[in-house]
UniProtKB/TrEMBL annotation:
<comment type="similarity">
    <text>Belongs to the CobT family.</text>
</comment>
<keyword id="KW-0169">Cobalamin biosynthesis</keyword>
<keyword id="KW-0808">Transferase</keyword>
<keyword id="KW-0328">Glycosyltransferase</keyword>
<comment type="function">
    <text>Catalyzes the synthesis of alpha-ribazole-5'-phosphate from nicotinate mononucleotide (NAMN) and 5,6-dimethylbenzimidazole (DMB).</text>
</comment>
<feature type="active site" description="Proton acceptor">
    <location>
        <position position="305"/>
    </location>
</feature>
<dbReference type="InterPro" id="IPR023195">
    <property type="entry name" value="Nict_dMeBzImd_PRibTrfase_N"/>
</dbReference>
<dbReference type="InterPro" id="IPR036087">
    <property type="entry name" value="Nict_dMeBzImd_PRibTrfase_sf"/>
</dbReference>
<dbReference type="GO" id="GO:0008939">
    <property type="term" value="F:nicotinate-nucleotide-dimethylbenzimidazole phosphoribosyltransferase activity"/>
</dbReference>
<dbReference type="InterPro" id="IPR017846">
    <property type="entry name" value="Nict_dMeBzImd_PRibTrfase_bact"/>
</dbReference>
<comment type="pathway">
    <text>Nucleoside biosynthesis; alpha-ribazole biosynthesis; alpha-ribazole from 5,6-dimethylbenzimidazole: step 1/2.</text>
</comment>
<dbReference type="Pfam" id="PF02277">
    <property type="entry name" value="DBI_PRT"/>
</dbReference>
<protein>
    <recommendedName>
        <fullName>Nicotinate-nucleotide--dimethylbenzimidazole phosphoribosyltransferase</fullName>
        <ecNumber>2.4.2.21</ecNumber>
    </recommendedName>
</protein>
<dbReference type="InterPro" id="IPR003200">
    <property type="entry name" value="Nict_dMeBzImd_PRibTrfase"/>
</dbReference>
């Protein structure tokens, strides 16, 4: 059976988010104080170790079984010319993932993550959300469950990624509907559209907001009206991971927008995620501020696929190696301060 058989089940899961294991986090913090370094001297690496300890419920967290989960979907809104690439590229890139030739294949491998690609109804693009909701209730629930069902409860860490030509427009629409502002605030170059393409994206957003103005601003309705299948799947996977107490690493703007749509109704959903990086898509920084998330890396990346998050996982492995392998002052015979 699907994890979220009804919209009410999805909403109930968002309203009952479990918290971290405080005892495991405290034990990890106590260990940090004993390691042979001045307290706090490893900065953000120390925070990562505590974050992982709390969510994994282990004083010595580990990443033996980490997964990069990449969802793919197609978008009816591409008919307006919102991407620098044609919609066929979504399926072509899925073939490239299968053949091992995409950036995420290399970067997931470098980060020691398994990689799983989940294409969702690529031959059925979402509807053009300037004139009608992108998905029916059943379609949106199916996509959310495709995400939730792909989350193995035994995972130590989950990285989410996406592939879907046109999806920076959907992500911008999710942000505009969730957090307000202007279309200009949330629109960017995506795959590399110029000034004209960005103007079209802004127009598309304004039409979409007018079209769905009367529908409830709940996370589900926002995902359904202006999201996409791969975006709803990332949201479902994040929510399922939260209930399995699996820490999540976010990738860029599109991935973060899936979280944003849920966070607008349930801000605590952000507590079990690490923002892997800040994408060069300008709206991503704005969104992360709204979510009160500080990105680990800022490498000027703007690809998606989970690529930036995968590089962040390599840094997280360093944090856990430090936490697990360093000697204590007592063990090493080093005088404590
Ligand atoms: C070859 C190629 C590989 C990609 N991998 C991720 N994306 C990224 O670009 C798309 C979003 O940008 P837009 O909204 O401008 O279409 C998504 O598929 C995203 O994952 C790619 C895009 C292309 C062209
Ligand atoms: O930040 C992202 O997720 C992103 C940016 C550009 C294109 N696709 C995705």
């Amino acid at each position: 059976m699907s994890r979220f058989p009804t919209v009410a089940a999805f909403e109930a899961a968002l309203a009952s988010l479990p918290g971290p294991d405080q005892a495991a986090r405290d034990a990890a913090a106590a260990r940090q104080m004993q390691l042979t370094k001045p307290a706090g001297s490893l900065g953000r690496l120390e925070d990562i170790a505590l974050f992982m300890a709390g969510w994994q419920g282990r004083a010595r967290p580990r990443i033996d079984h980490g997964l990069a989960l990449v969802f793919a979907g197609n978008h009816g809104v591409t008919r307006h010319g919102v991407s620098a690439f044609p919609a066929e590229v979504t399926a072509q890139m899925v073939a490239n993932f299968a053949a091992g030739g995409a950036a995420i294949n290399a970067l997931a491998g470098a980060a020691g993550l398994d990689l799983r690609i989940v294409p969702i109804d690529l031959d059925r693009p979402t509807a053009d959300f300037t004139v009608e909701p992108a998905m029916s209730e059943a379609q949106c629930l199916a996509a959310i469950n495709a995400g939730a069902d792909a989350v193995d409860p035994s995972l130590d860490l989950l990285l989410l990624g996406e592939m879907g030509i046109g999806n920076t427009t959907a992500a911008a629409a999710l942000c505009l509907r969730s957090f307000g502002g202007t279309a200009q605030n949330w629109v960017g170059a995506g795959t590399g559209v110029g000034a004209h393409g960005q103007m079209v994206k802004r127009q598309v957003l304004d039409l979409a907001m007018a079209c769905h103005a009367d529908l409830p601003r709940t996370p589900f309705e926002t995902l359904r009206c202006v999201g996409g299948r791969e975006i709803a799947a990332m949201a479902g996977a994040m929510l399922a991971a939260r209930h399995h107490l699996i820490p999540v690493v976010l990738d860029g703007f599109v991935c973060s927008a899936a979280l944003g749509a849920m966070a607008a109704g349930a801000p605590d959903i952000c507590n079990h995620v690490i923002a892997g990086h800040r994408s060069a898509e300008a709206a991503h920084g704005r969104l992360l501020k709204r979510l009160v998330l500080t990105p680990l890396l800022d490498l000027g990346m703007r690809l998606g696929e989970g690529s930036g998050g995968a590089v962040a996982v390599a840094v997280m492995r360093s944090a856990l190696a430090m936490h697990d392998q360093m000697a204590t002052f007592a063990d090493a015979g080093v005088s404590a301060g």
